[in-house]
Structures are given as structure tokens and as C-alpha cells.
Amino acid sequence: MNKLMKILLLSGVALSATACSSDYVMSTKTGDMIVTQGKPQVDKDTGLISYTDAQGNERQINDEQIVQMIKKD
């Protein structure tokens, strides 16, 4: 019974961790669609948007290149 409780607890933690981060889709002026892991961070001082792409790579893009940013369901 103890092993079952551990498995259920770990499963619950894993599900709650993945449910907290929402992916976003950014549309660029050139028509590209960028899917991010988590919410992109906007730096108003530099004009850059920092994000993690779908493959897990850290990237940046100029905010003037982004037309629309929406939360992915």
C-alpha cells in the first residue's frame, strides 16, 4: 500500500507542475508562428522578448517583429 501512495503522490506532483506553465504562440510580421514553452518575458528596456522554444532552446526576438501573442490551450 505504501508503494501505491508514493506513485499516486509523484503522479499528482508531475501533473500539477505541467499544468502551471502555459504555452504561447507568437505570430511574426513575416508570417512565422513561434510556439513557446511558458510565457515569454518582455524586456521593455531592450525591446527584446525572451522565450523558450518548443525544443527547449532559449531564444530572443525583437518585440517589433511580433504581431500577436496568444495563450495556447
TrEMBL record:
Pfam families: DUF903 (PF06004). It comes from the Bacteria. InterPro entries: LSM_dom_sf, YgdI/YgdR-like, YgdI/YgdR-like_SH3-like. The keyword Transferase does not apply. Coiled coil: none annotated. Residues 1-19 form the signal peptide. Keywords: Cell membrane, Lipoprotein, Membrane, Palmitate, Signal. The keyword Signal applies. Residues 23-70 form the Lipoprotein YgdI/YgdR-like SH3-like domain. This is Lipoprotein. It comes from Buttiauxella ferragutiae ATCC 51602.
